[in-house]
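Lab notebook, design round three. We kept the backbone fixed and only want residue identities now. Task for the bench partner: fill in a sequence for the structure below.
Input structure tokens:
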């Protein structure tokens, strides 16, 4: 059986949480404490709070969302995007 973390083709090296207020940080830390019962410490160690400037310095501009000055994202028509994604999948042979 494949675990949740092994189901993804790529494993993230870091998970940045940017722009969170103190109240949100407390709530997210609570969720992380709960998740620590099910997730390896190595994965939890990759989660970090950071300022947006630091995240933009470490993430390639092609991968950053458009609303923070990057080139990724910006899907305005979610239905068209979903249809294009579904058309890209191979049709199952039954």
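Proposed sequence:
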């Amino acid at each position: 059986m494949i675990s949740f973390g092994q189901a993804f083709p790529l494993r993230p090296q870091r998970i940045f949480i940017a722009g969170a207020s103190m109240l949100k940080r407390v709530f997210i830390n609570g969720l992380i404490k709960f998740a620590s019962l099910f997730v390896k410490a190595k994965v939890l160690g990759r989660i970090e709070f950071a300022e947006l400037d630091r995240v933009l310095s470490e993430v390639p501009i092609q991968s950053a969302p458009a609303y923070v000055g990057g080139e990724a994202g910006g899907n305005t028509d979610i239905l068209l995007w979903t249809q294009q994604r579904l058309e890209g999948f191979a049709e199952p042979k039954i």
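Keep this in mind before ordering anything: The chain has a mean pLDDT of 83.
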